[in-house]
Each structure stands twice: as structure tokens, then as C-alpha cells.
Amino acid sequence: MSILFKGRSQGASDTKIGFLQIISAFFVSHLRQALGSLGELWRQPAASIMTVAVLGLSITLPSTLYILVKNTEKISAGWDQASEISLFLRDNTSPASAQQLLTRLKTWPEIESVTFIPADEALKEFQYLSGLGDAIAYLESNPLPDVVLVTPTPKNATPTAARLLLEKLREQREVDIGKLDIEWLERLYALLDIARELVSLIGVLLFISVVLIIGNTIRLNILSKRDEILVMKLVGATDAFIHRPFMYTGFWYGLLGGLIAWCAVILILWWMDSSIQAFASLYQKEFNITGLSGNALLLMLALSVGLGLVGSLISVQRHVQEIEPK
After folding, report:
1. From CA 324, how far away is CA 158, in angstroms rounded?
2. 147-152 sheet: strands from edge to edge
3. Fewer Cβ atoms within 10 Å of its own Cβ: the N or the C terminal residue of the chain?
4. Helix, coil or strand: residue 292
5. pTM above 0.85?
6. What is the mean pLDDT of residues 116-143?
7. Bridging pattern class, strands 111-117 and 147-152
8. Sign of the four-CA dihedral 26, 28, 31, 36
9. How far is CA 136 from the centre of its chain?
10. pLDDT band at 225 (very low <50, low <70, confident <90, very high)
11. Can you tell me the distance from the alpha carbon of 80 to that of 139, in angstroms, rounded to the nearest whole number?
């Protein structure tokens, strides 16, 4: 009985060791082929550097445009909150009626804040800004009405929502004229929509070109190793074993291209930073470009590696299968 138990224990141990050896051999094989494909790139430095540089620069352009569009959207969000609706009250509106209007408007969920400017205060501000000085004193009466400045909430500051709010405010009995200079905001949103579509179009075209470049490079690599692939197929090598070095080559192309693109984006934005700060200073603002975080780097690397693997897979599936022993 003890001999039987000992034999079973030894068999289980051998099975466990065999399984661990299979796992270890699997990772060692992948590591060997990954390092071997990297060595192939190292042995052809000129061609490898040119290919990686083309890939990196192809990814740089849409990445830079995407970051700039995102930062422009961040700036425009602040402009949306600054947009105001001006309500000019009727001449016969009493202070009590104006106060009732303010009280009602403050309860509206679409409105963030309400500011009342009396006619006398508006006249003083006009006198100061216009430079007319004492000429205003010769007026027999104040021609300016009381004004209510309404600031919509961020949700209602978009062109469509602000226009609907303006129409609703115009229906108030105390309001004579309602004004909203929204044309610039509509132009801004239209430009941002065009920019987003342009970035998407340029990105798709350049990403397709990256896949084609990597696919063609891998195709040339496959053709240069045609005899080696024939020998491996004759001795019974699996398709996965034959495909793996070329897939790792595409992986290295994508990874190195992504690193070059990330460095290029940093350099471009650093170069543009002084011009952006000079422009922001004209409006007494400080603005820092965002979008170069660790998550952005990981996303850029994942995208470039994915493009490299896709290009390699397309080329491998097509050209390696065409090589068959006769």
C-alpha cells in the first residue's frame, strides 16, 4: 500500500513539474523570440530608425491636434460661463417691480446669477467709458433704462440653450428688450466641431498609413527569410511559432514609434508654450496646456503598439501562408 501511495505521489509530482516546465518554456520561447526580433532591428539600424521615425511622426500630428482641441474646449468652457444675457427693462418699471423680477429669476434653475444695474449707475459707467465727460450733464433726462444681467448655468450656456432661455426671459412683463451676443459662441462651437472632425479624419488616414508602412516592412522581412520559413515548415514548426518573430517586430516598431511620438508632442507643445502664454497675457490670463499625463502616454503607446500588431498580423497572415514547401 505504501509503495502504491508513493508511486501515485511521485506521478503527481512529475505532472506538476512537467506543467511548470511547459509554462516556463512558453515564456522563455516568447522572450527569446522577442529579443531576437529586437536584435534584428539593431542589426539594421538605418532602416529601423527611418521606419520608426516615420511611424512616430505619423502618430505625432493627430496626437498634437487632439491635445490642442481638448485644451481649446477647456478654454471655451470658461467663456460659456462668462456669457451674459442683458435685459433692458421698460421705462415705467418701478423699483418694486424690478425687485420682484429679480426675485423670480433667482428661482429659475437655468440661471446661475442675476445682477441689477440701475439706470443712474449705467449712465455713470457710460460717462466714464465713453469719454464724453461733462457733455452728459447737459442731458435733460437719463436715456438709459434699468438693466438686468443674467448669467446662465454652464448647462444652459450653449448657443441653443441660451437662445431658448433668452426667448423665455423676453416674455417677462417687465422686460422691454433682451440681448444676447451669441454669434461668436456659435462660431466657436462650429470651429470646434470642424476641428474635431478634422482631427478624426487626419488620425484615421495617418493610422491607416502606419498600418500599411508596418505591413510592407514586415512583408519585406518575410520575403528575406523565405528559405528559413520553408525549412521551419518542413521540420514541422507550427504557424504560431513562425508568425511570432514578425509579430514581435511589429510590436517593437509600434512601441518605439509611440515613444518618439510622445517625445515629439512634448517638444512641439514646449515650443508653442511661449506663444500661447503671450496670447493669454493679452487677456490677463494664465493658461497651462494639459494632456501630457501618464494616462496620455499609456494611451499613445497602446495605440501605436496596436497599430504595429495590426500591420504585422495582416502581412503575416497573407505572406507567410503563401510560402509552402513543394
Report:
1. 63
2. 111-117, 147-152, 85-89, 175-179
3. C
4. coil
5. no
6. 63
7. antiparallel
8. negative
9. 53
10. confident
11. 37
Amino acid letter at 300?
M
- Cβ neighbours of residue 127 under 8 Å, at least 6 residues apart? 133, 136
What does the alpha-carbon distance between residue 133 and residue 127 come to, in Å, rounded to a whole number? 6
Q: Which long-range contacts (CB under 8 A, 24 or more apart) does 24-28 make?
A: none
What's the confidence (pLDDT) of residue 7?
Answer: 47
CA–CA distance, 93 with 22 (Å, rounded to integer): 89
Q: What are the cell numbers at 24?
A: 516556463
Q: With 70 as the cut, is the pLDDT of residue 73 above it?
A: no
User: Which residues are registered as beta bridge partners of 212?
Assistant: none
Q: What tens digit of pLDDT does each residue of 243-259 get?
A: 888 888 888 888 888 88
CB neighbour class for 234 (10 Å; exposed up to 12, middle 13-18, buried from 19)? exposed
Q: What's residue 81's pLDDT?
A: 47
132-155 confidence digits (pLDDT tens): 555 555 555 666 788 888 888 878
Q: Are 163 and 127 in contact (CB under 8 A)?
A: no
The amino acid sitting at 54 is V
Q: What is the pLDDT of residues 254-277, one digit of tens each?
A: 888 888 888 888 888 888 777 777
